[in-house]
Amino acid sequence: MVLEGGSLRCMFSAGVTDVLLEQGLVADGVFGVSAGALTGVNYTARQIGRTARVNLEFVNDKRYLGVNNLLKGRGIFNFDFLFGDISDLYIPLDRETFLNAPTRFTAVATDCRTGRPVYCEKSTCADIYQAIRASASMPLLSPMVDVEGVPCLDGGVSVSIPYQRALDEGYDKLVIVTTREHGFVRPPVAKSTARLYARMYRRYPKLIRQLLEAPRRYAREQKQVDALELSGKAFVIRPRGPVTISRTEKDTAKLQALYDQGRAEADRRLGKLRAFWGE
């Protein structure tokens, strides 16, 4: 299972993965980038509906999402609150199932020094939750996160759809869930944003290069995903049309609609997915 990021666009992926869990379709391995890693945690922990509940119930709670978090030195998404009170008290994360599940789970972050992906697997990473936090820490909107001595940011800076890692580890069938429609083209980085990158990350020139290269790299990844699908190595589930919600969307009706869209797409393609899965 390969899960693209996209902040709150992960509501589409949440709908897809919930249907898979309900149908007993549990992957041997999960590779998640950014919000895809957060969704993948709940899929690995077998917690149907948890991703959607967290976002729907807390997206308008300033403790979870808000500019004030930035002013306090946190990211715009407050991961202390997410992995603390939300995961321990309000909507508990089944940490025991997550850690002990036979499904291998890998969160993808980006090494700010090299601009290269960092792959953190739950059975070998000293603190997998710290790695997940790093994977979902958006540039400009989050501080860097230390992962085993390495300053890291959002995995999507270096790889948006980590299919290659799954292939390199020997998986011969990939279910890829994207949060953008087929043919989506990322616009070039705006000059104003490029200047912010240059100012904010002047000590990390390789990180800046990756940030500026992101639109071209994403186009290459999309082409490779198409090739994997055509060859029969990948089963790709995408939104059927443009996803227009923002990275910090507050409209819960829109978020619910995107979740429902993910469920509907998984249901629509369930027969073909079962055949691909070998069920």
Q: Can you tell me about this structure?
A:
There is one protein chain. This protein has 279 residues and is an alpha/beta fold. Helices cover 47% and strands 13% of the residues. The protein contains 12 helices and 8 strands. Strands 1, 2, 3, 4, 5, 6, 7 and 8 form an 8-stranded mixed beta sheet that branches. A hairpin with a 5-residue loop joins strand 3 (104-111) and strand 4. Helix 1 runs parallel beside helix 2 and helix 1 (10-22) packs antiparallel against helix 3. The radius of gyration is 17 Å and the shape is globular. The chain starts with a strand and ends with a helix.
Q: How much is the average pLDDT? A: 96
Structural class: alpha/beta
Spans where pLDDT lies below 50 across 5 or more residues? none
The global form is globular
The number of strands is 8
Strand and helix order:
EHEHHHHHEEHEEHEHHEHH
Measured distance between first and last alpha carbons: 16 Å
Share of residues in helices? 40-55%
Major sheet characteristics: 8 strands, mixed
Instruction: Please give the count of helices.
Output: 12
Strand content: 5-15%
Query: Compute the gyration radius: what is it?
Result: 17 Å
Describe the secondary-structure layout.
Layout: E1 2-3, H1 10-22, E2 29-33, H2 35-44, H3 50-58, H4 67-71, H5 79-90, H6 95-100, E3 104-111, E4 117-121, H7 128-135, E5 145-147, E6 150-154, H8 163-168, E7 174-177, H9 191-200, H10 205-231, E8 234-237, H11 252-268, H12 270-277
Parallel strand pairs: 1-2, 1-7, 2-3, 7-8
Antiparallel strand pairs: 3-4, 3-6, 5-6
Helix pairs in contact: 1-2, 1-3, 1-11
